[in-house]
Amino acid sequence: MTHSPLRPPTMADVARLAGVSHQTVSRVLGDHPNVRDETRAKVQRAIEEMGYRRNSSARALATRRTRTLGVVASNTTLYGPASTLFALEEAARAEGYLVSTVSVRKLTVETLSEALDHLSDGGVEGVIAIAPQRSAVEALAELRRPFPVVAVGTGSASTVPSANVDQHLGARLATGHLLAAGHRTVWHLAGPEDWQEAADRVAGWRATLEEAGVEPPMPLRGDWSPLSGYRAGQELAGWVGRGLTAVFVANDQMALGVLRALREAGVRTPQDVAVVGYDDIPESEFFAPPLTTVRQDFSTVGQRSIALLLDLIEGRTPSGTAQIAIEPQLVVRASTYPYASPPGTAPPG
Amino acid sequence: MTHSPLRPPTMADVARLAGVSHQTVSRVLGDHPNVRDETRAKVQRAIEEMGYRRNSSARALATRRTRTLGVVASNTTLYGPASTLFALEEAARAEGYLVSTVSVRKLTVETLSEALDHLSDGGVEGVIAIAPQRSAVEALAELRRPFPVVAVGTGSASTVPSANVDQHLGARLATGHLLAAGHRTVWHLAGPEDWQEAADRVAGWRATLEEAGVEPPMPLRGDWSPLSGYRAGQELAGWVGRGLTAVFVANDQMALGVLRALREAGVRTPQDVAVVGYDDIPESEFFAPPLTTVRQDFSTVGQRSIALLLDLIEGRTPSGTAQIAIEPQLVVRASTYPYASPPGTAPPG
DNA sequence: GAGGTCATTGTGAGCGCTAACAATTCATGG
DNA sequence: CCATGAATTGTTAGCGCTCACAATGACCTC
What we know:
Two copies of one chain form a homodimer.
Chain A: H1 11-18, H2 22-29, H3 37-50, H4 56-63, E1 68-74, H5 79-94, E2 98-104, H6 109-121, E3 126-130, H7 134-142, E4 149-152, E5 162-165, H8 167-180, E6 187-190, H9 196-211, E7 220-221, H10 226-237, E8 246-249, H11 252-264, E9 274-276, E10 293-295, H12 298-313, E11 323-326, E12 329-331
Helix pairs in contact in A: 1-2, 1-3, 5-12, 8-9, 10-11
The structure holds a DNA duplex.
């Protein structure tokens, strides 16, 4: 760090100082075995002294590997996508890769295409698309790029390689939990129609009810926001006393709105209506009442999807066939059980 | 797109197909003026036909510009940092830059140093550090790197160039609003001690009270989480009837906890105690009651900080002197005014 | 019609690194 | 004491692009 030339030192500079060839410096940097310890030490010293760092562009040009991955994320601060993003970066860094991100406001063929091009121009070797909207999955299938693309959050609909939490199972856990608590039926406030994960949760909820011999009521729709949950909650409140005793809400934020609407309508949770959410955001423990919900392990999602993408880059896995499912987990809180233990009523049917 | 050679086409390939020199292709790509329209069209056609894309590594090597910026973010899903991250990427992309992110779990000299090295190895031309913790600011000042670093979220303490929302002003807006509503004094639930923004909010709150001739009570401490807000709320509930009528909480999530604790203690908001939060997260409108809070415009933060960083990279701005302040905004909701209009009581003093 | 100017295009030399191969050193055994 | 091969080091040629400069040709002007 003693010098301060206008241009950063090159490998040749280090080689000169160490009295070796640039190739030997390269070997030291690359942990090549056939270098004498003494030489290695000499080179290391020169590197330290000059504060030398390998030029990544030159390296990338020579090796044809940039060691950079791209991530396309929706421009959102939703808990799921944000958590996934961090988990992805961490997993990628552990493998020595840099992560470049592009955030898009809407997931359409155009925006996705632009995002992929931007990343492509940045030289990424592969891309993870956090693409929860169904349109995005279709767009992704359509957009061929010279590098592999792995989707995350696409639910069951992935025609592209993907890693996903098993949403169907998550919905089953939530719905089954309510049925096991003695509820005759379970209503559902679903997420946006074009989100595959929302559709999968609907399917899991519906299947669980049908297997229990219950005709599923018409699901309500929200847009993930507390406001939409609030609106739906007002509607749901009107059904209390007419068979509505339990609601499975497709995410925690909407559940927050539902809880508020119910409270305002004089409906008690969970005594009158039990509520289950989805995601287990940090706040859900502090809702009134604390929310029973389904937890997704985003850290695992990150690791598995990065592993899959690297496999694809190395050509270890046939593209198009790789689908990874990750198990979610039910977290029981006061919004379904007001007291310590469940009613213990056997499920109907 | 018709060919599919093992290696992607190079500029020379395109040149050959178009019947020109590689340099002419380069000129077309670079929008150089002195190219005949006919030639340009010919080249464009060849580019299309081969699906050619410039190799970014080669370009970076030749120009010594990677057109990549780095961002260091705390591994968090807090609303502020997440919003900032997206805003930064958008602003950078608008300037033609790619953004590489590194997320760290803790902001220490070691983790920051590693993060900067990782980005440095990725060839970034500059870095934005989302560094709200005071320790991070110090660490940043200590860590010299061969590229400029701009801090965001460092509040007033930046010894490095930075762009920040004026936290002092935000706290004044919140506190002044409560005083203007007739409250004799305002309590404060602060954020973590080592967050500079938290300290700035404390300072703004304290200054406002002192200017009104009020002795500030001892501030309480939280860690931004709803749980810590809940705990503090329980403590605050004990002071109701002994002079506590208004609380300024340093973020919305803690305010959520405070609201719940107050409610459980039989304290009504805002009739017994008025509460103001900070951030204006999307959920705060749906708290019980809807939360009065201070909104920060992260999109502006993103644009201004990227602009500053690019100035620094181009050498347009002397390093170390650049500090940008952005104005926050008060959003009034039911947690301070139960009815349509404020009490209209004149502030004391 | 010679000389000059301008627009347009081409040529050659790197950018800093790695990969392949060539050269050297060194220990070892016959 | 030299041949033999392994260990170690050096040399050369690109990777695909941009930059500086040279070359070409069209079009004027006097």
